[in-house]
Each structure stands twice: as C-alpha cells, then as structure tokens.
Amino acid sequence: MASRQPRPVDASLRSLSIASALLTWSVCCAAVSVRALPEPDGGSSNSNMTELQMHVSFFDRNKDGILTPLETFQGFVAIGCEVAFSTAAASTIHTALAPLTNPPGALPPYINIYVEYIHKAIHGSDTGAYDSKGRFVQAKFDEIFKKHAHIRKDALSLLEVEEMLTVNRDVLDPASWAAAEAEWQLIYQLAHDRYGFLTKERARGIYNGKIFVELEERISRRPLHSNA
Predict the structure, then answer these.
(1) Where are the beta strands (DSSP E) in the chain?
(2) What is the arithmetic mean of pLDDT over 204-224?
(3) DSSP state letter for 34
(4) CA quadruple 37, 39, 43, 49: dihedral positive or negative?
(5) What is the pLDDT of residues 106-122, one digit of tens each?
(6) Which of 5, 122, 99 is nearest to 52 (CA)?
(7) What span, in angstroms and rounded, lies between the C-alpha atoms of 87 and 105?
(8) Contact (CB, 8 A) for 145 and 190
C-alpha cells in the first residue's frame, strides 16, 4: 500500500514492492484458501478499532498495537504461507509501511508498523470501502457489488474483480494501480469459493480481518502429515 501524497518516485517504488509481495502471496497461499470455511458473519468484538486496524491487527501477535517484522512473519506462517516467502513479505511490507505509520516524533530506524496510524498507508485507486481514517464505509462496500456483480448479485467472479479495478483506477495516481491489483488478486485467491466467486460475506471478512483468524484456526487443526 502507498500513501496518498508521497513523492512520485517513492510512490512508484513502494507500490511495485508491495504489489510484488502480494502477488507472490496470492500464488504461495492459493492452496490454503478459505473455500471450505463457513461464511463469516462480519461482526467483531473490537469495537474501539477501525475496520482497517482490525484487518492488520491479526498480524499483531501480542496485541500491543505494534507490528514487528517478526510478528508479520509469524502471521503469514500462521495462515499457511511458506517460511521463505513469509520472511521476504515481512521485510518488504515493513520497509514500505513502517515509515508511514510511525507516530509523530518517532526516530529512525522505522521498522515497526503502528496499528493506530495504519490509515496513513491507505493508497489511491481503492474502492473507498475504508475512509481516510480506516473506518468501514458500508455504502461503498455495497456499491462494489451493485456495480460489478453481474452474474450473482452477492458475489464477484475474477473477471468482475478485474472490471472493478479498471473502473477504480485513479488516472492522477498510476503508481497506485499495481498495489490495488495485487491486493484484490490476493483477496480473490484467498477467499473465493469452490465455484470461483468471491462472495460478499467473505470479502467482508477480509476487510475486518476475520478471514485471517478463521484460516489460522483451520491451519492449526490440520494434521501435520496432511497436504489438504
């Protein structure tokens, strides 16, 4: 993800690095998708957190409000990603986001991501389902499906996801296109059902992080010798 007002060169490099990590994630983690999980109910007990904070707090393993590179690595491993990829992804993501989310007055090196300030890492060309503070905007979320769900009103096919991404591209911020593409490819790979559709409920579970929790629970119950 990239800041809304970065320097042009920094924005391009940041978006490409995150896009690369997330696209790799969509490939590495495709085998551990949530297709067999029940639909999440979309609720959450974290009433004092924004949806974006809930989304990233899954990776805050000790729940102290600060994501260290080690915790991000552990979060990737917990949902079934390989160790080598989890290491590279944690490094890439923290390099890009830590400087954006550190509290005012913080001194370098910027290696940790602060949940309280994660909204500062929101990028352009997104759906608007998070507002500028990271709060969930139900109307914008519903709009995704009203505009782009042509086959099923409550779900998106991969082609419909691509249609949405094309429509949402900010012509004044082309550096953000790759990050948006990578994120939604990841969302689709992680949460599409057995028929190839990303349902509204599962997409909702990505926004508030509930899918990550359910996936970790599924992985933890898997027999060590199983490849399923």
Answers:
(1) 66-67, 113-114, 155-156, 198-199
(2) 86
(3) S
(4) positive
(5) 888 899 999 999 999 88
(6) 122
(7) 28
(8) no
Cα angle 121, 89, 112; round to 5? 50
> What is the tens place of the pLDDT at every residue in 165-213?
999 888 877 777 777 787 788 778 878 899 999 999 999 998 899 989 9
Instruction: Give me the pLDDT at residue 199, please.
Output: 95
CB 3 within 8 A of CB 120: yes
Q: Which amino acid is at 112?
A: N
pLDDT higher than 80, residue 223: no
For residues 42 and 207, the answer to whether their CB atoms sit within 8 Å is no
Pairing of strands 155-156, 113-114: unpaired
Tokens of 10: 């920094």
Tell whether pTM > 0.85: no
Please state the length of the chain: 228
Kindly report each contact of residues 63-69 with a partner whose C-beta sits within 8 Å and lies 24 or more positions away, as own/partner: 65/114, 65/115, 65/116, 66/112, 66/113, 66/114, 66/115, 67/94, 67/112, 67/113, 67/114, 67/115, 68/111, 68/112, 69/94, 69/111, 69/112
Q: Where are the domains of the chain?
A: 49-221
Longest dimension (CA), the chain: 51
In this structure, what token pair is assigned to residue 54?
A: 């809930």
**Cα-trace Rg, the chain:** 17
Lowest mean pLDDT across 55-64, 74-83, 123-132, 193-202: 123-132
